[in-house]
Amino acid sequence: MSIIGIYLAAGKSRRMGRNKLALAVGKKTLGSLALDTAIQSTLDTVCIVVNENDELSWLPERMKTHEKCKVVICPGSDEGQSASLRFGIEYARKIGASAIVILLADQPFITIRMIDEIIACFQEHPNSKYIATAHDGTMKPPILFTRDLFPALLEVRGDQGAREFLHRAAADTGKQLPCHDPRLVFDVDDERDYAVLLSQLE
User: Fold this and answer.
1) How far apart are CA 1 and CA 32, in angstroms?
2) Which residues of 94-132 are buried (b: 16+ CB within 10 A; e: fewer)?
3) Measured on CA atoms in the order 182, 183, 185, 190, is the torsion positive or negative?
């Protein structure tokens, strides 16, 4: 049972106005934080989906060469997050993955435990089609999808990624793991969010 992470890092940071993945967070970059977490989890591989113009200045050399990491360039990333998602799924299909875990490069506070609990839940309930993080009534990444859902996910379009698909999915086909700490699902979209992130380091 091969489970790989799809690390969505191909966004254009339009709301931020600059490459948010390269923003400094202490001695690290925003884009490297969740990736470092993913590498330390029980995921077999982490597929890092980036856009064509990304010079990868945000990605530390040790991650570029890490045995768990595979950087793939998404040529159609202008379409939105769904394009990156589809590109990652195609990679997962090519290597025969049993399931994927969707991870966002701008979610700095996800934990190893979150990822590993999702994987453990799937291993305990292999008939589930998805395992989602749930906060305040909304399903959010990290989210696991089994290969049974790959064909349907490849039909997703626009900038909503898998969110709209999850809302349509029957509840009894998957499971939700509650997350009661909003910090863990916090994502950085604009300068205000970046300031909040930095305040957490003080």
Assistant:
1) 27
2) eeebebbbbbbbbbbbbbeebbebbbebbeeeeebbbbb
3) positive
User: CA-CA distance, 200 to 141, in Å (whole number)?
Assistant: 21
Structure-token pair, residue 136: 């305040």
> Residue holding tokens 């360039």?
73
pLDDT digits (tens, 9 = 90+) for 18-77: 899 999 999 999 999 999 999 999 999 999 999 988 999 999 999 999 999 999 998 876
The string of pLDDT tens digits covering residues 71-111 is 999 887 667 778 888 899 999 999 999 999 999 999 999 99
- Report the chain's C-alpha Rg in angstroms: 16
In DSSP notation, 144-171 reads EEEGGGHHHHTT--SSSTTHHHHHHS-G
